[in-house]
């Protein structure tokens, strides 16, 4: 094992951000469980860095609502509650319906070609049953629609929300039958976009989100 940190060439200002992303991913991917304590010294030793960027990252995680700092006790993982997850889906439902409508109005041939290309890759990896790749291209499919709105502000808001939702949603496509039905839903969205039918595209993308929301609810209900 190398004695140096993988973050050693990173400037101090961006180091805290990189540690935040690393710890956030661990929480969202359930490497850390709700109630786990995040110890500054232990993390600093593991990552071979000083405690200062760890402290900065933990503060940012607390602002995001993913951890809780308890005086005289430490920092503990909170994760997401079922209500948090439902709230994110409701926000995404409204914003993504608007996004696909904007995209149809504003996209050019380059944006449309990108959405088609991503769908083809999504289809390919679905037939292969490659869950990790399907998850990656599922995210990219939706982000390609956000990009087609040609609104940097709107795209960033949606990407932030979709990041959290996509991590919790990965459980919903872990079954072969869901891989196939999810692909069919994305195909229907693409067809409506190609047809330039904003109402149909909005309905189809919202139907897809509702289906995913229902499956995520079932997943978390089984974990109670």
TrEMBL record:
<dbReference type="GO" id="GO:0003677">
    <property type="term" value="F:DNA binding"/>
</dbReference>
<dbReference type="InterPro" id="IPR036390">
    <property type="entry name" value="WH_DNA-bd_sf"/>
</dbReference>
<dbReference type="Pfam" id="PF07729">
    <property type="entry name" value="FCD"/>
</dbReference>
<feature type="domain" description="HTH gntR-type">
    <location>
        <begin position="13"/>
        <end position="80"/>
    </location>
</feature>
<dbReference type="InterPro" id="IPR008920">
    <property type="entry name" value="TF_FadR/GntR_C"/>
</dbReference>
<dbReference type="InterPro" id="IPR011711">
    <property type="entry name" value="GntR_C"/>
</dbReference>
<keyword id="KW-0805">Transcription regulation</keyword>
<keyword id="KW-0238">DNA-binding</keyword>
<dbReference type="InterPro" id="IPR000524">
    <property type="entry name" value="Tscrpt_reg_HTH_GntR"/>
</dbReference>
<keyword id="KW-0804">Transcription</keyword>
<dbReference type="InterPro" id="IPR036388">
    <property type="entry name" value="WH-like_DNA-bd_sf"/>
</dbReference>
<dbReference type="Pfam" id="PF00392">
    <property type="entry name" value="GntR"/>
</dbReference>
<protein>
    <submittedName>
        <fullName>GntR family transcriptional regulator</fullName>
    </submittedName>
</protein>
<dbReference type="GO" id="GO:0003700">
    <property type="term" value="F:DNA-binding transcription factor activity"/>
</dbReference>
